[in-house]
Structure formats: C-alpha cells, structure tokens
Design a protein that fits this description.
Length: 450
C-alpha cells in the first residue's frame, strides 16, 4: 500500500458533477501537479479549494478539490477528491492525467480495503459499506447503517470478551490446580457462562434470518395450471401490466419477474409457465423451470381456479408444498365455487385478480407467515451475510462440543482447545484474524472507486 491509487467514484455518464478520488502518500503532490494554481500542498486539511485542472497550457475543467490529510480520512491516508463537471470525456481525461502523473488505477473496493487494512474499519463495517450501496428498502438501509457504525461489530466483540473470561478461568485452573479458592469449573463457573454464551449466539442466529430477508428479499414464485390467473396476480401485485394476459393456454413460456416492497422488505416475484403436459418444446422447458422453482423459492403462491374442480396433478403439487412456505391463492372468487380443498390445507386466500379484490388479504398473509410485524426496525444489529453467519455457526458448534466435554469431565485443557478455536472464528467475522485470499475476494465484489 505504498503507492497512490485513483478511480472515478461516481457513475460514469452525463451529469452535474463527477468525482475522481485519489488516496496515498503522494495524493496531494500528484493532484497539485495538474492544477493551475499549484497551492494544494499549502492548504489546510479538510478544505474545499477552487481551481482548474490543466494539461500543460490546456485548461481541462473548472473544479472544486477536497483535500483531506491523514490520518483523519476514510483510508487513513492523504485523500484528494476532484469534483469535476459531469461528462464522460472530461472525467476520463482527468483520470488519465492522474495515471500519467504517478497514480495507479484502483482495484474494485480498494479504497475500502485500505480503510480496513489501516484499522479504520473492521470487516463487518466494510461489508456494511457494500450493503449500504446496494440497499433497496428502508430496512436494508437501516441494517447497513448499523453495520457501518459498528453496532454489529460490538455484538461479536462482546461474545469474544465472554469467551476471554471463560478462558481466563480455565487458565487459572490449569496453572494453579491446588489453589483452594478456585470455584468448581463445571457447575459454578464455566457451565453457566457457556450456557449464557450459547443463548446469545442462538439469538443472533435467529435474528440473522431476518437480516437475510431484509437484504435479499423473499424469493416468491407464482405457480399453477395455465389460465388460473398467475400473470394477472403478478400484475396486480406489481400494479403494472408486466406479464402478458390472454385466454390462450401457454402464453407464459418463460419466467417473468418483478419486485415489490412489503413493509420495507423486498418480494422478488416470479410468474412461471403454467404447469401442464405439453408437446411444445419451448413451453415444456418453461414448465420444467416452474417445477424446479418449487424447491428453490422461499415462498410459493399456488394459484387455483375457484370455478373448477381440483385435478390429480394439482393434488400432487399440493403434496409437494407441505414442507414449504406457501399460500393457496384461490382466484376467480367472483365465479361460482366448484373447488374443494383436501383436509389440513392452511394459508388459503381468496382473490379476484380481474376485480382486484383480496390482494390486501394476500399481502397480510405474507406478512403473517414471515412475522414482518415482529422484525425490529429501530435496533437492527444483525449479521446479514453468508460469510458471517457461517462463521458464527462454526463457533456455536465448537462451543457446544466444549459444553459436552465439560459435562463428560474431559480435562479442562482439552476443553480449552475448542473454546479458543471458537474465539478465533468470531475474530474472523470482524477481521481480527483473516486470510489474505479472503480479503482479496471480499473487496473484489465492491464497485470501482469505493
């Protein structure tokens, strides 16, 4: 990290302004070399300075230049940001000048990576930066902010501190086994502390399921036979005519997708091809995709026709859904009823997609299934990505194994091994311990210039 990096930090295109960011020990010197006034090396830190970017005698743009000196910057290095007039040609010209005068083009996420490596943020805070960029709802925005400001990191740090206290008790027992005042590790000290620690971890894991819903949304598939009203339901949910609706069977031959926000959570809705036997090659591929989505969806909206009897194939689909999150959507409720459902079927909602009735009841049922009313908004300090959740799962398994060994009177120095490993796994979540390959892979997912 001894070189100076640069990248365009705003979306490249026509706009009011564009920002070119520079970070590194020579940031001020390099940018100063392409300005008209040549005074950036003398200005105060955290100031905005009016100037021109020049290439020799040619004026390239009239700009505002922010100068921020280490260590009070995002990367903890000298940082300069050039606020230029938006436009592809001008922005690229300034970037080329910076590269020509000693900068290196930053890799994706390299500014945030430097912030992590220089101790400005930990890994969960870095992931919060990416989540904030990608946030699509108010709740996902709030979740990202809590990661960014360190609330989520503090959860993990508290768990690690609890483990340190347990390890301290074990070390005392190992070093001074003859000391009479040491409490019984199994019943009075380590056992209760381990139980309390596991309770905390289980709560975090349960809450993290909510975080995944907040960030990724609920993958929702609309399935059913042709002409039961799947595409009409999609259009009603989206409030737009996204799917083609006709009386001709097999109109929907591939999946049609859309998104809606429900109480701050995203529903990623997929309208599928009608499930039926068909000799049409294209349609049969669509039917196969529809059946596969039953296994790959978080929620199934199974649409049935109120005006027809339940077929054998529909009964088979109902059987496939018994272990899934599903809602039986009985469409065409405005027509005479001929449909009878088997005993034990739950989560049934009647609608008329044609008359736009029952849609609010359907949304209410979705909220009920996912307990959306119970998801905390004010203090959402959850783990929200697969990497962190996998690591805390590993830590939990190690602590559970240690707990079993305590109950089995395994020597405490053997128990200590699993507890120390759990402490290390939690450290990987916040980046106290990490592998270089992991860091490179994680930050490569960031956009260029961040």
């Amino acid at each position: 990290m001894n070189d100076t990096i640069t990248a365009i930090s705003t979306a490249l295109g026509v706009g009011a302004i564009s920002i070119i960011r520079v970070s590194g020990k020579d940031a001020i010197k390099i940018v100063n070399g392409i300005t008209k006034r040549k005074k950036l090396d003398k200005v105060e830190s955290h100031t905005i300075n009016y100037d021109y970017i020049v290439d020799g005698d040619n004026v390239i743009d009239e700009v505002l230049i922010s100068v921020m000196k280490a260590p009070r910057t995002f990367t903890m290095e000298d940082v300069v940001e050039i606020n230029a007039h938006g436009g592809i040609s001008t922005t690229n010209y300034i970037l080329k000048l910076l590269l020509k005068n000693g900068c290196r083009l930053a890799e994706p996420g390299e500014f945030t990576k430097r912030a992590f490596l220089n101790g400005r943020i930990d890994l969960t805070e870095a992931e919060g930066v990416m989540d904030l960029i990608n946030a699509k709802t108010d709740k996902s925005h709030k979740l990202a902010i809590n990661q960014l400001n360190g609330k989520t990191s503090n959860l993990i740090k508290e768990l690690r501190q609890d483990i340190i206290e347990i390890l301290a008790n074990i070390e005392v027992n190992i070093d001074y086994p003859e000391y009479e005042d040491i409490v019984d590790l199994k019943t009075k000290d380590i056992g209760p502390k381990m139980d309390n620690l596991l309770k905390k971890i289980n709560k975090i894991l349960n809450d993290s399921n909510n975080a995944i819903l907040i960030n990724d949304g609920i993958k929702t598939s609309i399935i059913g036979k042709p002409n039961v009203g799947k595409s009409s339901l999609l259009n009603r949910l989206l409030n737009e005519d996204k799917a083609i609706v006709t009386d001709i069977e097999g109109t929907t031959r591939d999946i049609v997708e859309g998104k809606i926000s429900l109480d701050g959570l995203l529903l990623n809705i997929i309208d599928t091809a009608g499930i039926r036997e068909t000799d049409n090659l294209v349609e049969s591929i669509g039917v196969k995709k529809s059946l596969e989505l039953i296994d790959n969806s978080d929620l199934i909206l199974y649409v049935l026709n109120n005006n027809t009897e339940l077929s054998d194939s529909e009964k088979e689909i109902l059987d496939k859904l018994k272990d899934k999150n599903y809602i039986i959507v009985i469409n065409k409720s405005d027509l005479p009823n001929k449909l009878t459902l088997p005993e034990g079927i739950k989560n049934v909602v009647q609608i008329s997609a044609l008359n736009d009735t029952g849609i609010d009841e359907l949304k209410a049922k979705i909220k009920e299934i996912y307990n959306l009313e119970e998801i905390e908004v004010e203090d959402m300090t959850y783990l929200s990505n697969a990497r962190s959740i996998a690591l805390i799962e590993e830590a939990k398994n190690l602590l559970e194994e240690a707990n079993k060994n305590i109950e089995s009177d395994i020597p405490v120095d053997m128990v200590e091994i699993d507890i120390k490993e759990a402490w290390s796994k939690l450290g990987e979540i916040i980046g106290e311990t990490y592998q270089e390959e992991l860091i490179d892979q994680l930050f490569s997912q960031f956009c260029l210039g961040k």
